[in-house]
Amino acid sequence: MLELAVLGFLYDLPLHGYELRKRISALTGHIKPVAESTLYPAIKRLEKGGLLARETQPGSGAAPRHVLTLTPAGRAELRRRLAEPAEGEISDENRWFTLLAFLRHLEDPRAQAAVLQRRLDFLSRPTSFFYEGDRPLRAEEVEDPFRNGILTIARATSRAELAWLRRTLASLHAAAGD
Amino acid sequence: MLELAVLGFLYDLPLHGYELRKRISALTGHIKPVAESTLYPAIKRLEKGGLLARETQPGSGAAPRHVLTLTPAGRAELRRRLAEPAEGEISDENRWFTLLAFLRHLEDPRAQAAVLQRRLDFLSRPTSFFYEGDRPLRAEEVEDPFRNGILTIARATSRAELAWLRRTLASLHAAAGD
DNA sequence: TTGCAATACATCGGCACCGATGTATTGTCT
DNA sequence: AGACAATACATCGGTGCCGATGTATTGCAA
User: Fold this and answer.
1) In whole angstroms, what is the distance from residue B10 CA to residue B74 CA?
2) Transcription regulator PadR N-terminal domain: from which residue to which, for each copy (chains A, B) (predicted)?
3) Number of neighbours of residue B178 by Cβ within 10 angstroms
């Protein structure tokens, strides 16, 4: 999730770590804050993997800035991660949102549609948080008001997202000329 | 999140690790699968902390079962974690849902209401995933269809959850005689 | 002028998580 | 008879995450 965000933001333009941190905080910070002690090692990892290069730029701020630029390998890697997301990227809303935030970088509407389709398939599978044996329970069958809330909210989210997915898939298919 | 689920399930009745795993998988497994190699160390941790006790029960299955029971300290700890959740439990939907799944164990409707109120406050804060300077952008202002989707879906979820929160808070206050 | 917040980076130790792998038994399908 | 899934636990190495802490500068407010 973190690495995807780093690659995603740098795909647009080179940034230094601190600026990157502010952008990631704005994107997902209200849900799950990003610690500096997580970001800087992540940058180092990506650098060691040849996905980004750093150029030290003195002046302007306090400590010398390290401006980070994606290498061609880094650009390819972002596109790969967007086109072939792990199952967790599809099922976990937090990670899915991060992926969505950068999906435009995939350019090919067919590839974008394929990713949305995976999320649609996931949301279409009949799953619940609560079961009676193997049978998923509906909200109406759950007496506990808090567990009922989980199902009520999840259903509303699912409905809204499915509608959006279908709408967006239609316009992507139109764009691709299908 | 994992520890909370363990404590939550055992609050109802003693279970062995394997059964615990199945219940946790049913609860959150479709979002984020739980690995055995994460569960067993977590059980050990809680045991070492004096929150649960294990009783070896031979027979029945394959390997001898370790039936896990919450100690009084474990029961108190669950109530404490439910009553005083960390900020991440409030902001992260996955963790919030886990908390909701066991909030009934808190019994006192006033304490339950206080927790729901924290979530309501969080959802009421004007935040976005995208900003222009400091100003949060509305869905209508975001051209990228995927980022627009994030805001559209988040708004629908938020609306549904706020309605549920207000409804449930009202009935909790009624139950508490406020 | 003293102090604090913001800018900008970095390290370290502890710990949680996970995939891989191992052990052993029961039940079922072929 | 043999294969395989399910039951039931456990360990180990690698790695990512995080809080605490450190360094150094700029700029604003008390």
Assistant:
1) 9
2) 6-79
3) 10
Chain C footprint bases within 7 A of protein beta carbons: 6-13, 16-21, 23-26
CATH 3.30.70.1170 fits A2-83, yes or no: no
B1: CB within 7 A of chain C nucleic strand: yes
Instruction: Report the pLDDT value the prediction gives residue A46, as an integer from 0 to 100.
Output: 97
- A52 in Cβ contact with A71 (< 8 Å): yes
Cβ-based neighbour number of residue A15 at 10 Å: 19
CA atom of B43 to C1′ atom of C23, Å: 20
Is the CATH number 3.40.50.1000 carried by domain B2-74?
A: no
pLDDT digits (tens, 9 = 90+) for B82-104: 999 999 999 999 999 999 999 99
Across residues A67-79, what is the average pLDDT? 97
Rg (CA), chain B: 20
Q: Environment class of residue B78 by beta-carbon count within 10 Å: exposed (0-12), middle (13-18) or buried (19+)?
A: buried
Q: Which of A123, A146, A158 to mutate to test the interface with B (most CBs of B within 10 A)?
A: A146
Nearest to B75 by CA among B137, B123, B143, B13: B13
